[in-house]
Design a protein that fits this description.
The protein is of the alpha/beta class and about 290 residues long. About 45% of the residues lie in helices and about 20% in strands. The protein has 10 helices and 10 strands. The relative contact order is 0.10.
């Protein structure tokens, strides 16, 4: 649904009524002073009644949606948005609807492009590009509020054997099955990505190493119970998974970023593989044993 927000100095019931005719549009009018708090409303399109009163907000914000201004075209105002347009006669309903629909289409196409660029085609999970951006944000938040942040890097054991024995099509089916199973177990705030060919990286905000280990073990046991039977086979192919956990902050007096935290999870995963696979290893415990 499109979320159209009109920033105005007065109620605008007639304009609201016109825009409500747009399919699947939610239209509201708020005070123009609230432009600085646009993220709370998360608009698909912003309509601004008075560009002069909006100058401060326009100078200090980069808006992730298009903006339609009422009044003549202005070249003396800097606008940082996904797109913008002017309409001199808002009473012309036909022109208004055309311009609003054009700007909403820009927003839809931009959102679709963003999803495509940050999504893995096979599994529908986020990809590494999305992971890098979000993990840095979550580390910054954990540092600011003094909370824990855990990462679990999962790897399907003997995945190459599946491809070699049954073909890549069944390897893809197994990857999707694992992705769906893991997606069903995580919280809304968790970040799940396909990290490599048969690797999945899960970011767990506000989660201790102990709780991350409990989750990892629960998922490992779920994978162990999977019924994966490729076509033409009479028995299920045994599937197991290994995992490595790192929890920010990982090491005292070390300036850690997203790459550092992932690298620690990789070390723990390699250790799990070295110990015979089908294990979840914590980076901190691995250090104690080295």
């Amino acid at each position: 649904m499109s979320n159209i927000v009109i920033y105005s100095t007065k109620p605008m019931p007639e304009l609201q009524a016109v825009l409500m005719d747009i399919d699947e549009a939610d239209v509201r009018v708020v005070s123009i002073e609230q432009m600085k708090d646009y993220a709370v409303i998360n608009p698909s399109l912003m309509i601004v009644e008075n560009i002069d009163l909006a100058k401060d907000a326009l100078m200090t914000n980069k808006f992730p949606c298009p903006i339609l201004f009422f009044g003549p075209t202005r070249r003396d105002v800097t606008v940082r948005a996904e797109g913008y347009d002017f309409i001199n006669d808002a009473a012309n309903k036909d022109e208004l609807i055309v311009r609003v629909n054009a700007l909403l289409k820009i927003k839809t196409l931009k959102d679709k492009l963003e999803r495509v660029s940050t999504t893995d085609d096979l599994t529908g999970l986020h990809n590494r590009k999305y992971l890098q951006e979000r993990l840095e944000e979550e580390i910054s938040r954990a540092r600011r509020y003094g909370t824990k942040l855990s990462c679990i890097l999962f790897d399907i054991d003997f995945f190459k054997v599946v491809n070699d024995m049954y073909g890549y099509e069944w390897g893809d089916i197994l990857l999707r099955n694992i992705a769906n199973k893991l997606s069903a177990m995580i919280r809304k705030e968790d970040i799940l990505t396909r990290y490599g060919d048969e690797e999945f990286l899960l970011v767990l905000p506000n989660t201790s190493e102990e709780n991350a280990f409990l989750f990892g073990e629960r998922f490992r046991r779920e994978v162990e119970k999977m019924e994966f039977i490729p076509a033409g086979e009479d028995e299920a192919h045994k599937v197991t998974i290994s995992g490595g956990i790192s929890t920010y902050p990982c090491m005292p007096d070390v300036d850690e970023d997203a790459n550092t935290v992932i690298r620690y999870a990789e070390h723990a995963l390699y250790n799990a593989k070295h110990r015979g696979k089908n294990k979840i290893i914590q980076f901190s415990q691995m250090n104690l044993e080295m």
